[in-house]
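so the lab meeting is tmrw and i was supposed to have these ready like two days ago... anyway. pasting both below. for each one the top line is the aa sequence and the line under it is the structure tokens. i havent really looked at them closely yet so no promises
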Amino acid sequence: MTPSRRALSLESMGNFRTLLLGLVAYGAYAPVALAAQSADDSFQEVYQQLRRGPDFSADVPTGRMELTRTNQDGLLHRYVVVVPENYDPSRRYPVAFYLHGGVSRPDPGPGGGWWRNYDVVMGHDRIAVVPLSWNESLWWQSSQVENIRGILSDLKRTYNVDENRVVAFGSSDGGTGVYFLGFRDVTQWASFLPFIGFPGVLLNPGTGTDGLIHIANLTNKPLFIVSGETDRLYPARLMTGFLESFEEVGVDFVFTVKPGGHNTRWWPEEEENIERFIEAQPRDPHPDSILWATERTDRYNRAHWVVIDEIGPISGDEARVDLARITADGRSGILDAVRDGNTVTVDAYHVGRFTVLVSPDAFDVRSPIRVIANGEVVFEGMVQPSVDVLRKWAAVDEDRTMLYVAEITVELKPEG
């Protein structure tokens, strides 16, 4: 039986910290009516419009296309998108991102050759995206998080995307990049499939990883992991310590060892298992529980309906050592939040302020909501749906299944 994620022992965490040091050295749902929640007809109109989404056209490009998008800082990113030739705008299409390996190289220019085997990308009755990563924009840097989010947003504006079936594949460096997304940016993803990658790469300061790696964050989405038995870079045996830590904190994962080295020649024989896994793992846009750690609040501070707004010592931190142990450094902020009906119970360590996002698909907003943090009731009362809040988060997520109508912001007592 997998232990409670808050029951991580000091001994096991000590072993994990030893593992980390060694690896660094190695280098290596049904809609709920809002009637009676707001007398403002304009609110009702905006809400229903956002839930319906745009009117998608049949007159859109299909097949294989190479496109570009530009980040806010002006950095141009190339990507390939493959849309089924028989695209039907009345259907919602799953989306799969495929992250390639060999990223420490210059921009190869147009041509789409950065993904070596398009046979595994084509078909499956879904939209496939193959972004480019190169030495100016690595998978584990914020530029790629912005890029991938931006590509998904662009797709949502043109094609009828199934928001709850967006998955991330990755091979080699791309597999490592998929781990990074699981550690840092989970809200839009249904599941993660890292192949022949290695999370230990992200612990090496020389790789330029954007921030700390919090193992606990992988508990929020399932993983399908494949390693090569005789992989010359990341043999399956190197995953042992990580897998033990995944089990300790309660990560939902499937781990498969394939004969052979650093390649994905086995992909066709695993295809049925891969597709079965994806089909069985749709995203829950409003999960009942969230465990999230972060050392910063300008990014990577949100998981679905929980946002960490301020990090720092709070009263009683010394009593919450179990939470401290499953942050990467023992000083980052972490929330363990569970929703049961209209009650949210939060265990918080080193979090001075956080926000609960309220969706009518998860809460009965016609009744009082209660938030309990570290054993104390910190909010209890009605919330008033706000069109400003609705529009704010709809602009961020562009997601018909994940609409928020109110925010509950909680401040916890500082240390001393």
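ok protien two:
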Amino acid sequence: MTSLHLLLWIAGSVVLQLAIYLGIGFWRHWQTFDALRLAAIDGGLGIHVNTDGTEAPPNTVAWLGMRSFSVTHKVIENEVNDICSFHLAPVDGQDLPPFFPGQYLTFKLEVPIADGSTESVTRCYSLSDAPQTNSYRVSIKRAPAPPNSTHPAGRSSNYFHDQVQVGSLLQVRAPAGHFHIDCSLEPVVLIAGGIGITPLLSMVKWSLGEQTEREVWLFYGVRNRLELMALADLQTLAAAHANFHLQVCFSDPLTDDVLGKDFQHHGRINVGLLRRLLPLKPYHFYICGPKSMLESLVPALEDWGVRDAHIHFEAFGPASVVRKNAAAQVATISNAPTSAQALTITFATSGKQLPWRPGNGNLLDFAEAHGIAVNSGCRAGGCGSCQTTIAQGEVHYQQAPDFDPEPGTCLMCVATPQTHLTLAL
């Protein structure tokens, strides 16, 4: 055998080994994809992968408008009795459509007022359990009146706690919301502050039930043991699933709170903690909590090098978190106003004409900042409470709202002006 033949044999052997390696890798990837597809279907989500790379919604058609639900169980969830779960079953007895874990329900409530009548109030609350075919669950924290403030206690949360009982009927819109877990098998980090745990509970339970190999971390931050919800359930899940890592953080522990038993870390959740504990992997981060948590964590994750597409967040209560690449994103949106454009917003009923520039926020925040009262609920484009007639001009949505506004109107909480604008307020 000549040297040339020997060299050809060696080259051929290397090519064959490379082909075998790539073939095995492709086969393993296909097995993972097929297992995910079957798990999603078996779990009732009806997920399929689109050729354009986007995630398709559940294929079961949800109902339109409001649907009547009965409260079947009412369960106190913490030691101070300010978090309560409400289990809901449809009055018509028909199966419920699946939802993406992390989504919310919208309620239209008839809340009693001082003169003995009622007032319609629309509010959104996160689903706090994995999808079921016959019931939903929401978990609601009572919102007291702020100390040293003239603001009243939360109307809807106190209505639920004080007035809604087993057997009560509620009017409910179908699950909605853009904040929900993806259906890949990429590792995921869930970060909850206080009652922000509710949508993440849904994510945890669905993932551990349907994605048994997916790595899931949950960082749950509260002040102390009295504010915890579902800790026993979470500890049981952590003991049963080696891929689920539970990390509880107390910022102000009680004297009898035990480190290592009741909680794992003293202090607030921050990127320093995440960097110490998380292996170097392409995690998706899902964050739900108060504005202060989002304002600290989102920029810190960006500074750490986490891709923008891997950071997902939702606030309970009004919040606006500006990402570092927000200016670049706005510049790429067709017809979005640029920073050089000054637009005039006219509020017809109030008789005010005000200049607006990007950076002034959405129309709801802008109106309230100038003393114009606007009815609002979710402040996230889901409930339709702030729907307002447009007398003249056009608005822009950076992301399509979940609630479909009527023609000639806009949802002020998620809209910005695209042209000079006149609103019937």
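from a quick look at the 2nd one: The longest helix spans residues 3-42. The mean pLDDT is 84. will dig more after coffe
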